[in-house]
Every structure is written in C-alpha cells, then in structure tokens.
UniProtKB/TrEMBL annotation:
Its EC number is 1.1.1.2. GO terms for molecular function: oxidoreductase activity. It catalyses: a primary alcohol + NADP(+) = an aldehyde + NADPH + H(+). It comes from the Bacteria. SUPFAM superfamilies: GroES-like, NAD(P)-binding Rossmann-fold domains. This is alcohol dehydrogenase (NADP(+)). Its cofactor is Zn(2+). SMART domains: PKS_ER. Belongs to the zinc-containing alcohol dehydrogenase family. InterPro entries: ADH-like_C (IPR013149), ADH-like_N (IPR013154), ADH_Zn_CS (IPR002328), CAD-like (IPR047109), ER (IPR020843), GroES-like_sf (IPR011032), NAD(P)-bd_dom_sf (IPR036291). Signal peptide: none annotated.
Length: 346
C-alpha cells in the first residue's frame, strides 16, 4: 500500500478537503498511474451530494483521469512505464458475462466496478482521480494518443465517450440531422464529435448565450428552447436527439422534434422519475432511449478518433483548492466547458 494525497468529501454534501488515501500495491496485471489531470464531471457533484442515492464516504470523486504510467505489474502486456494513459468511469467488471465478452463492460450484467463510490472485488472501496496516483488493472486502462494534451484529453474519458457511443450507435453521420440538447460539458463534446462524424448538427440550449461557441465548435444551427417558436419550427426535424440535460424535461415536446423512426437518447440523468404520454412515441414509431458511457474498446476508438481530428475538450484548468468553488460554478452553468484539476496542486 502507498499513501497518496487526494481531495475527498468526508460526508454527503460536505465540501471536499485535502486528505490522504491508500492505493493498493501493484498486482500482476495492474498499472500504476501518476495522475496529471482529472476532469470535474457533473456526476461527481450528484454523487458527493447523494443525488443518485446512498453513497460511500469518504469519497474521492473523479472519473476523467489522464496521466502517465510509472510502474507495471509482471503480467502487464499492453502498457509500459512512460505511456500516456487514461481511466474513465469503470475500473473492473465480471469479464465473463455476455456484455463483457462483447466489449460492453458498461452494461456488465453482474455490475461493473465504478472508479469511485464503489467496492472492488477485493472488498475495498474505490477512490477516483482527484488524487496523485491510481492503480488500475490494465484491461481498464486506455491509451491517450500523442497529438492531444493530457489536460484536454481528461474529459474525453467520460464526457467524450458518453456522447461518442450513442452518436455511433444511432448512426450519426452524413445525411443525418442530429440535435444536441444542452450545451455543457457533455453537450460541447457531442457537438464536436457529431460534426466530425459528418452529421448536420443543431444545438438546443435554454438561451442563445453560448451560440458563438456552439457554431465555432461545429454546430450548423443553434436554437433557444426558451422560445416556443423553436418547437414549431423544428417539429419533425431530427433523426437523433442526444439529451445531455440532467434537469427534468418535457419529453413530449422534444419527441415531437423527431422524424419518423427518430430517437431521443438520454445521457443526462434527472434525479426524479419522469412522466410521459406514450402517444409521443407511438405516433411516428419513435424511440426514447438511454445510453451509458461506452465499453473499453470503444473508449479507445473514441480517443483515437478525437486525437486524429484534434477534438480535445474545451477546458478551464484549476488548482485543487478551487474544487468546491468549481462545483458551485458547474451547478450555475458557469464553465466553458469542463473544469480540469491540475493534480500536481493536490
Ligand atoms: Zn462523468
Ligand atoms: Zn460482465
């Protein structure tokens, strides 16, 4: 075991503070990573505040981890000391179920092990990326290609894959009209990736405040959802809507923006159940769906794609003593578009 510095929430809703945690000794198939940057994801805040149910404390959040390998176990074959690597939302899964065998570890039928706020197969709690190091089985480590900075790559490990996976699954590409609902951490990556995939991209945001950014990042059109005319004008338009919004939505109103056979896919998760009149999906054979991050293989594919196209995240790098302030700013929508912690300041 090694003692390392970290930022943790000691209890639900408590501010994060500097502390130390134990990292396990490197096992046969483990990689020890010197963390350089860790993104702040909205779901870190949900979990610290127990918005998604009871959580494990102390909690070291962080599942957008970018760093450099400093030690490998004797059985490691894919990584060497000095490699630039990333870790996302999972650090283990059963590896034998149908989904794990298909590279869909995020849907492991026995439940995967989340990077933090979970208990590993060894019975120990997992701690995330707001820390100096992390030890992870090599099967859950991905390579960050040269040509993309570790700081702008960190958010790809959650925000990038969470949007890339549904865009690919629902065939965003040339000839497809894709709407991105919400222009935040997830939304701005969805715009970049959908545009790079060749789709015609529309941002649906509460206001036109971020319109210039949206168009610069690759959107073709930008509409305010606070304007009722938007819903008249865009009725029956989209093949795919990716909703990154975690606040309650009028799903009926958004389903009406889909063409026949269109899909509204949720990657944001409101804390409360939603209600829906099912005629919204019956008319037009529409799909209301969800999607969770992506498998390890697809995460590597996404990183390679983003590096090739120069698609880093738009970031604001902060020192660790500003994490609590950053949380408040995320909740206020005051970040363009992802906070990334410089973990050398922990
Ligand atoms: Zn996340
Ligand atoms: Zn499994």
């Amino acid at each position: 075991m090694t003692t390392v510095a970290a930022y943790a929430a000691p209890a639900a809703k408590a501010p994060l503070e500097r502390t130390t945690i134990e990292r396990r000794a490197v096992r046969e198939n483990d990689v020890l990573i010197d963390i350089k940057f860790a993104g702040i994801c909205h779901s870190d805040i949900h979990q610290v505040r127990e918005g998604w149910g009871e959580a494990i404390f102390p909690m070291v959040p962080g599942h957008e981890i970018a760093g450099v390998v400093t030690e490998v176990g004797p059985g490691v074959t894919r990584f060497a000391v000095g490699d630039r690597v990333g870790v996302g939302c999972m650090v283990d899964s059963c590896r034998t179920c149908e989904n794990c065998r298909a590279g869909l570890e995020q849907y492991c039928t026995r439940g995967n092990t989340m990077t933090y706020n979970a208990v590993g197969k060894d019975g120990e709690p997992t701690y995330g990326g707001y820390a100096q190091t992390i030890v992870v089985d090599e099967d859950f480590v991905v390579r960050i290609p040269e040509g993309i900075g570790l700081d702008e790559a960190a958010p790809l490990l959650c925000a990038g894959i969470t949007t890339y996976s549904p865009l690919k699954h629902w065939n965003a590409g040339p000839g497809k009209k894709v709407a991105v609902l919400g222009m935040g951490g997830l939304g701005h990556m969805a715009v970049k990736i959908a545009h790079a995939l060749g789709a015609e991209v529309t941002v649906l945001s509460q206001s036109l405040r971020k319109k210039d950014d949206g168009l610069r990042l690759g959107a073709d059109h930008y509409y305010a959802t606070s304007d009722p005319k938007t819903f008249e004008e865009l009725a029956g338009t989209f093949d795919l809507i990716v909703s990154t919004v975690s606040a309650p939505l009028d799903f009926g109103a958004y389903l009406a923006l889909l063409r026949t056979d269109g899909a509204l896919v949720n990657v944001g998760a409101p804390e409360e159940p939603v209600s829906l009149n099912l005629f919204s999906v019956i008319g037009g054979r529409k799909t209301l769906a969800g999607s969770s991050i992506g498998g390890i293989r697809e995460t590597q594919e996404m990183l390679d794609f983003c590096a090739e196209r120069g698609l880093g995240s738009e970031i604001e790098v902060i020192s660790a003593d500003r994490i609590n302030e950053a949380y408040e700013r995320v909740l206020a929508g005051d970040v363009r578009y992802r906070f990334v912690i410089d973990t050398s300041t922990i």
